[in-house]
Sequence to fold (463 residues):
Amino acid sequence: MGSPRTVRRALALLAVGATALTAGTVSTGSVGSFAAGATGTTTAGAPTAAGVHVRPASAGHLNALGRTAPLSTSDCVSQLGIHCYSPLQYREAYNLNSLYKEGVTGKGRTIVIVDSFGSPTIQHDLEVFDKQWGIPDTQVEIMKWGNVPPFDPTNPDHTGWAGESTLDVEYAHAVAPDAHIILVETGVAETEGTTGLPEMMDAERALIRSGRADVISQSFGATENTFPGFDKGDFKSLTDLRYAFKEAAAHDVTVLASSGDNGATDAQENGSDLYPYKVNSWPSSDPLVTSIGGTQMTLDDSGMRTAPDKVWHDAYGAGGGGVSGVFDRPLYQTGVAKVTGNHRGTPDISMSAAVDGGAWTYESYDPTRAGWHLTGGTSEAAPIFSGVVALADQLAGHRLGQLNWRLYGLNLLPSQWSGISDVTTGDNSWDTVTGYQAAKGYDLASGLGTIDAGRFVHALAGR
Fold:
């Protein structure tokens, strides 16, 4: 197996009833050509990121059975010692219900989610999830890229990505219930990472070129420092992978990525140790991507806030953020240059990600632990925001494309007009690395802040 180079420390997936949280690693692999429901073939000449080990931000499962039914927030606090939230609470907290009343539900828009292996039970699990919360069902379109192996519920790589797929699909759908969802399953070779990122980028480019994608949600990444040549100032192994994002920009497709779950640091080559200093991860750090950071919400059982949102930093992780070691500061961040310096700063915007404030998911891909589980991490924040973008695309009547120019422009307006709510408390320190402190305005812990979707979607769409 190739040398593993990981992205972000696995976000604990809390299997309710257990007494501890554990983390695992998951990786990606080979290159293919794309066809709906068909196995791809090798793409000649595709760039590789040799040895870079990619995993989903929400990897890691507890060896415990899932619950037969989700708990209320108050019961989670009393029984588990953490907060837990349903999609209905998110709808209330983010003021999404006002949009649904206007008929803004994501109809006519397509969210593309890229995850290795996928989940063999995704349609069933989504239907159970929908029934629990009274959300209309949708048919998930599954597309395979590369040689996707048969799912093995005893393989932690498979189950880690299945958990990510479940989280991504259920919460993108919960926010934009009428949007079409395409789950792209990529195949993973034994030499993990040698062709994994090009495989994902090829799949995204193919969907963009075919006109199928409006917004792409990515809950994976790799620490910039682990790309070959980084220590010598040679970033070609990373920048050669940007072709999908350039294609997205040319076709007005929005691309999102989780900012990470290890605060201001991230994983080294071995996939478990963290850098003892500040680093950043790609694709979150890419200027063509909107980086989604993490907040911690405090809600009551109905979804009303009982305290302001703060930067996610609990016992299980912290929202990724910092400055890129590869990319210069883009023009849209000129107004926050005093914060970012001469480099690209992340995140751009933040959504719910705390494990102490985890989201209920239903999963049955592993029959030994089928049931309701809690998940946290910026891999939760990204699909939530992908749903918000789909709503804005519908309201605008067209794709909004690369969002960052709009975001930083909107931030110049009063919050009641922009729908952007500043996050001013908390920090993203993690492990031995002192991170960044939230402050008034843009910061490297929460970005521009979080959103009131009822206002933000109208502002983003210009309607």
